[in-house]
User: Which sequence fits this backbone?
């Protein structure tokens, strides 16, 4: 009888212990499930907010808290910009009086600061330098093109050669400045040029932001990256040889459209914050500062793959890009080899 009682008590304790363990496991699973659900919900809210911001009125005209002042040299200045009027604009109606220029500058700087804030949200970073904007009547003999120039210097840091941005300049004929999409396109360059990007990606993402967010795109997407592909005599995608905008190049418009189509497809596939992840990875490593020139597409695809969580080299090879799979060690070795060759040439 006593043995039976002990056995019953033991069985009861074992039963209670097993119930407690099951309850603990279920509770842990509930916390994990709720945690995953919360993360998924947070991601959905983030993507919804980003998608909502594609509306130009909500994204680009959000009030800015930046402060403004007039400099001694006649330039107008805000937190992230300076603005000046070129000589040929000072004789034009609406800009030939100081009060008119002051009113225009205050409005323009407020607007551009709102653009700056929007770009900061879109890309997750911002340039460390003020952006210097000059408004013209004509620039380089025309009122049909705006330009962004990023000036670079180089030096030694921690015993290594590095490049860094020394200035960002934007030149707008007034006819171009008045176009909302052009302002957004050029400001995108001002942001992304600090990473020494391949031309095709720099232009493609500028058209993406201009079109998808600012609703001011002039380059519609192609229906198919494969069907609308253009290759050179070596069988390489014609984006690879793009050196910048050239009006008399018959491939210029194709290049804008194809680059936009490509960056948009990656964006749609890997999420609204895909390029935020790409730029954060670049900033973390800082390898772009150590490159001898602009990064090659293989270098860029390394970061695309890291951000996407899968190898994107085959995807780019199917589009006839001349790329290969790189590791960070490969990139570092190439940087060191380029630096050694540069030092050797200087000594000769």
Assistant:
């Amino acid at each position: 009888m006593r043995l039976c009682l002990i056995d019953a008590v033991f069985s009861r304790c074992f039963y209670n212990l097993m119930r407690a363990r099951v309850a603990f496991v279920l509770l842990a699973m509930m916390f994990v499930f709720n945690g995953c659900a919360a993360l998924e919900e947070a991601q959905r809210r983030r993507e919804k907010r980003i998608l909502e911001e594609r509306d130009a009125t909500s994204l680009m005209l959000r009030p800015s808290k930046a402060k403004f002042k007039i400099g001694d040299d006649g330039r107008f200045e805000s937190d992230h910009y300076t603005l000046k009027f070129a000589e040929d604009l000072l004789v034009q109606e609406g800009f030939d009086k100081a009060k008119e220029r002051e009113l225009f500058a205050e409005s323009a700087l407020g607007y551009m600061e709102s653009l700056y804030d929007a770009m900061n949200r879109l890309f997750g970073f911002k340039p460390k330098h003020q952006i210097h904007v000059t408004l013209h009547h004509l620039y380089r003999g025309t009122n049909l093109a705006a330009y962004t120039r990023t000036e670079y210097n180089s030096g030694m840091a921690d015993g290594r050669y590095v490049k860094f941005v020394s200035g960002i300049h934007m030149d707008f004929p007034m006819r171009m400045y008045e176009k909302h999409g052009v302002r957004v396109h050029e400001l995108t360059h001002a942001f992304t040029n600090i990473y020494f990007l391949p031309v095709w990606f720099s232009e493609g993402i500028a058209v993406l932001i201009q079109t998808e967010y600012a609703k001011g795109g002039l380059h519609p997407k192609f229906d198919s990256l494969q069907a609308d592909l253009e290759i050179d005599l070596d069988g390489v995608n014609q984006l690879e040889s793009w050196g910048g905008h050239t009006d008399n190049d018959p491939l210029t418009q194709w290049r804008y459209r194809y680059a936009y189509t490509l960056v948009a497809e990656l964006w749609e596939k890997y999420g609204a914050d895909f390029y935020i992840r790409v730029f954060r990875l670049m900033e973390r490593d800082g390898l772009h500062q150590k490159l001898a020139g602009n990064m090659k597409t293989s270098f860029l695809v390394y970061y695309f793959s890291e951000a996407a969580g899968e190898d994107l080299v085959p995807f780019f090879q199917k589009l006839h890009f001349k790329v290969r799979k790189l590791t960070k060690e490969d990139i570092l070795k190439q940087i060191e080899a380029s630096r050694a060759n540069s030092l050797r040439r200087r000594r000769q």
User: Anything to note?
Assistant: Residues 59-195 form one domain. Residues 1-10, 49-61 have pLDDT under 50 and may be disordered. Strands lie at 69-70, 76-77, 81-85, 131-136, 147-157, 160-173. The longest strand covers residues 160-173.
